[in-house]
Write a sequence for this structure.
């Protein structure tokens, strides 16, 4: 039986030893969570900015029965008994608080990977989809710890290894969890001259509509390790005409997708070269 989103949100360190055990106890501490939530009711989490690049989306159709239950007020987007599941991976560009202004150039640019489902508000078929996070991965232990200590909406995992970037004329991603709680992924992509025909398969009016659905969101929902649900509002102004089609090279390694009965090689892939990203706000539902 697949773990619930609350179970999957729990942090497990990628390396053995007492530092990892101590960190796990800190991040799972209920007292700190209660204190942080009390503080953020008075002092909200400040807006965050990043100039992200090489954003690669890989989407599979999976059996909707493999998806988690939607939060109250939402329903899972489905078509013919299946639902899209996306892994998107990217390089941040000086990820930090918006109030830092030009000093944000001093902030680091970690790698991040978001694994997510798509929700629609109940009774509103024309709404912009809301992302439901399944997993989040970041290659900086500092960012992973900071996000978990100060945010409910972002609960990232730190893997033993995380590579993402150019490989020849294409791109390659490798996420190795070690003994930790991050999901595993190894995949390589190459550019395509045209979009593959038929992926929308009746679920969307065409490729532009599919791209807008998969990439153009303004909100995301996350389930915390204690079962509470958090909503974050984002600003991600992607221009669909600038999105570039990709194809997988060889057989990717993605146990999470294979475990849901989908073929990891049967995916719809594209790249967003760069886009400004902003976390506007977050709150508990």
């Amino acid at each position: 039986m697949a773990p619930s989103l609350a179970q999957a949100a729990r942090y497990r360190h990628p390396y053995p030893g007492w530092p990892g055990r101590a960190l796990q106890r800190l991040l799972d501490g209920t007292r700190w969570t209660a204190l942080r939530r009390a503080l953020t009711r008075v002092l909200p989490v400040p807006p965050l900015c990043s100039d992200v690049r090489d954003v690669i989306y890989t989407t599979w159709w999976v059996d909707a029965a493999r998806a988690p239950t939607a939060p109250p007020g939402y329903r899972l987007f489905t078509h013919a008994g299946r639902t899209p599941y996306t892994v998107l991976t990217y390089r941040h560009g000086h990820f930090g608080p918006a109030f830092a202004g030009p000093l944000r150039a001093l902030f680091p640019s970690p790698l991040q990977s978001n694994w997510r489902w798509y929700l629609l508000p109940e009774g509103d078929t024309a709404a912009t989809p809301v992302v439901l996070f399944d997993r989040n991965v970041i290659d900086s232990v500092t960012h992973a710890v900071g996000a978990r200590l100060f945010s409910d909406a972002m609960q990232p995992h730190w893997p033993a290894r995380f590579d993402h970037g150019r490989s020849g004329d294409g791109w390659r991603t490798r996420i190795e969890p070690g003994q930790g709680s991050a999901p595993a992924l190894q995949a390589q992509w190459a550019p395509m001259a045209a979009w593959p025909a038929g992926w929308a398969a009746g679920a969307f009016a065409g490729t532009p509509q599919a791209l807008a659905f998969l990439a153009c969101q303004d909100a995301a929902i996350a389930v915390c390790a204690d079962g509470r649900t958090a909503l974050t509002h984002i600003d991600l102004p992607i221009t669909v005409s600038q999105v570039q089609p990709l194809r997988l090279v060889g057989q990717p390694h993605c146990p999470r997708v294979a475990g849901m009965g989908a073929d990891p090689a049967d995916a719809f892939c594209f790249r967003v070269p760069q886009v400004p990203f902003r976390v506007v706000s977050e709150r508990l539902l």
The two ends are 27 Å apart (CA to CA). The domain at 5-284 is CATH 2.40.400.10 (Acetoacetate decarboxylase-like). The chain has six helices and 13 strands. The mean pLDDT is 91.
